[in-house]
Amino acid sequence: MPSTMTLTDLAKKMADIDIANLSTHTEGGNIAARPMSNNGQVEYDGTSYYFSYGEARVVSDIQADPKVALTFQGQHYFYVAVEGQARLITDKAAMREHWTEDLNRWFKQGLDTPGLTMIQIDATRIHYWDGEEDGEVKL
Questions:
Q1: Alpha-carbon distance 30 to 125, whole Å?
Q2: 24, exposed or middle or buried, with CB in 10 Å at 0-12, 13-18, 19+?
Q3: Residue 63 belongs to some domain of the structure
Q4: Which residues pair with 70 in a beta bridge?
Q5: Residue 1 lies inside a defined structural domain of this protein
Q6: What is the pLDDT of residues 34-65, one digit of tens each?
Q7: Buried b (16+ CB within 10 A) or exposed e, 121-138
Q8: For the chain, what is the domain count?
Q9: CATH number at residue 71
């Protein structure tokens, strides 16, 4: 059955999902996954932004291989799987556009946190499951 969900429809269903699972390729070809805050109430347009410390494994994994995956779990059997390309950004002006006060919980010095790195993930493929319906959202 062809997908009936548009990116706008998908964004509405994803609005209340706060945590995404970000998977990267590690040294030796293994896969590492970790929860990342989606900062809740984010209007999804195919690009996601997350913050990390520059010395974190997620950053070194992306430096070695920028192909990543995101998974989201919503309510009532709603799931989203995203394949994408990640970029690492350290420019404070760019980070400021996506910073929310909630992030101060993890980064006590805010945008001045040493090594602060923003991870931008541009989706290349999005698949969803919504109860008994599933499909791909065209980008």
A1: 21
A2: buried
A3: yes
A4: 22, 82
A5: no
A6: 999 876 656 789 999 999 999 999 999 999 99
A7: bebeebebebeeeeeebe
A8: 1
A9: 2.30.110.10
